[in-house]
Here is the input.
Amino acid sequence: MLYERLGSSELSISKLSLGTWVTFGYQLDVEAAYPIFKRAYELGINFFDCAETYAQGKAEQLLGQVFRKGEAEGIWSREDLILSTKIFFGSTAKPSRTAQGLSRKHIVEGTRASLRRLGLEHVDLLYAHRPDPATPIEETVRAFGHCVEQGMAHYWGTSEWEAAQIAEACRIADRLGLPRPTMEQPQYNMFHRKPVEQEYAPFFTGADGWRLGLTTWSPLYSGVLSGKYSGGRVPEDSRLSIERYSFLKERAFADSGRVLDAVDRLTPIAEQLGCSLSQLAIAWCAANPNVSSVILGASKMKQLEENVHALEVVPKLSAEVRRRIDQVITPELQQ
Ligand code: NDP
Here is the structure.
């Protein structure tokens, strides 16, 4: 495993990490999840990601149970792990107006509720899961500063914020003497590149002594880049077969299957490198030096075991290999 500093912090985060979206609450119970998380930790993964909204709070409960099981078995202690949650969407099917968003009220009360579900005194990383146009950024910066000050979180960050919003949060934090966001959590994969590669570029120079950390999500575009949906087949036990996530299937199958066709055309590149499509796609994300940690998802042990070997593929991603990938994943297919 490789480790990176998370942005300008001293926090040492594993280059690959493991999330709980979809899997916790819809696919795995604690008996099934624990061996995967334990194996992930044994393989060097130290960051596990969650959110208040995942399975309406059930994912946090499960992550808490997984943590306590590993602690009881002497696998890890709280200090060994970087645990996160994200606040914005609320934790019920239909949250009231005050139980969602980035008001001080929801940030503080939502974080307390998340900690109760997790059974933890603090999370390491606390994210604003989306920007909230209805709340002044100053209120949000003050509220996250309060959570850090109160020991509910060690670092705060954003997820899917525009560069201008992150820049404003930094200016406000500086003016108020509060912590800047340490990290952003954007989608990043071969199909979704622009925020990471273009919009956030000014945040990686370190020019004013601060660098943004990045914990990126959906490296496999929800499993599509594994190639398992080739020919439009949807395996029964896969994410795209889950009714609730039908929008992911529609996205993958849109435009007469252009996305699926492109994934098929990556196969010879992976074969030549001696790796699987999943490993190629994850390596492609991890190869970006501005990415602190690539958050993986795994519903099965064998996926995790396969995916962690992606780091061995990173040195093989020559300029020529990248050119071939870009000939397949053309700009029209990218966001
Ligand atoms: P991926 O795009 O990597 O998708 C993971 C899923 O792909 C797995 O659950 C599994 O689904 C399938 N898969 C994984 N490996 C393989 C393999 N080797 N072969 C075949 N199928 C495979 O990541 P996620 O979309 O899960 O995102 C990762 C994490 O990022 C989330 O858990 C969450 O913590 C975070 N996230 C954050 C968001 C945000 O807004 N901040 C939004 C979304 C995610 P299956 O077996 O069911 O098909």
Remarks:
- Residues 19-21, 23, 27, 49, 159-160, 185, 217-223, 226, 228, 238-239, 278, 295-300, 303, 306-307 surround NDP (CB under 6 Å).
- The radius of gyration is 19 Å.
- Residues 104 and 139 are 6 Å apart (CA to CA).
